Amino acid sequence: xxxxxxxxxxxxxxxxxxxxxxxxxxxxxxxxxxxxxxxxxxxxxxxxxxxxxxxxxxxxxxxxxxxxxxxxxxxxxxxxxxxxxxxxxxxxxxxxxxxxxxxxxxxxxxxxxxxxxxxxxxxxxxxxxxxxxxxxxxxxxxxxxxxxxxxxxxxxxxxxxxxxxxxxxxxxxxxxxxxxxxxxxxxxxxxxxxxxxxxxxxxxxxxxxxxxxxxxxxxxxxxxxxxxxxxxxxxxxxxxxxxxxxxxxxxxxxxxxxxxxxxxxxxxxxxxxxxxxxxxxxxxxxxxxxxxxxxxxxxxxxxxxxxxxxxxxxxxxxxxxxxxxxxxxxxxxxxxxxxxxxxxxxxxxxxxxxxxxxxxxxxxxxxxxxxxxxxxxxxxxxxxx
Length: 385
What we know:
The protein is mostly helical. Helix content is 60%, strand content 4%. The longest helix is centred in the middle third of the chain and has 34 residues, at 240-273.
């Protein structure tokens, strides 16, 4: 393990916020356009859905098909086509060999990473001058977590696609993860506090008897669940529809906060690169995410002022509610419980799609207004929850 003594200045350069600093202004940033990266391509609605589902394989096949249609593909594109076609040939002629290769690659990679973690050779600890630990990291563990996240995302996608055995394994793995969390959260609650205090929910186990709680109340208190969340207090006691809208608006507030943090972080990054923050974000984010980040950056600072809350609702939260309803109408499996509630709650007897949309908007507005009363809990830039 490597241990480094770090001054406040060098720690700040490494990305750790140790003190308040003046935020770079757009006027501080020069804009040499020749240094801009090429923005990511605009994705079709179907491609955006594949991206949201983490179906990177199907996206790759679509990219290959687009390259094939090019009149004069460049050398890199030709090499990509050649590699793709060779793998397709091998999968057609020698599927078992490709399977063994994939199996061995996964096992070997996992073994190498776990051995590196055991060795501690990539473990770094950054200390302040007084010996306080500022930050710890292990690149091997970070890589293992990243790959595990990727594989778990594929299991979730395949279960949603109803592939054989995927749902069975999802059930088994989810129960195993939740059980481990319950055990560790009671043994070492402090390890989960940083994540839990800004979260509305936590993993848990349920039984057929609703009286079984798996120590949920004890764990929630020990890890400080939701204590720094501006929309804490979700429950089903009064109305299931209300709790579903609560979760929806809370997630929107989380998304807006993350986008504003993203914008704030990219102010200094854009200044370092030598471009405007608008152009830097456009060059590094897919168009829909770029538009979201920029829209959120234009919101006023959150405060108890009614005008501030109204601006957040009209400028960003309401458009997100409308967009969510459109996605839900196209694919009710996106949130089956919410869709069932909307189907039985329309404003008219016919309960058209417009009725359902207005019902969702009305209830989400009520939830948002409740959250606005906790304005003092909404974090400002640089104060994640």
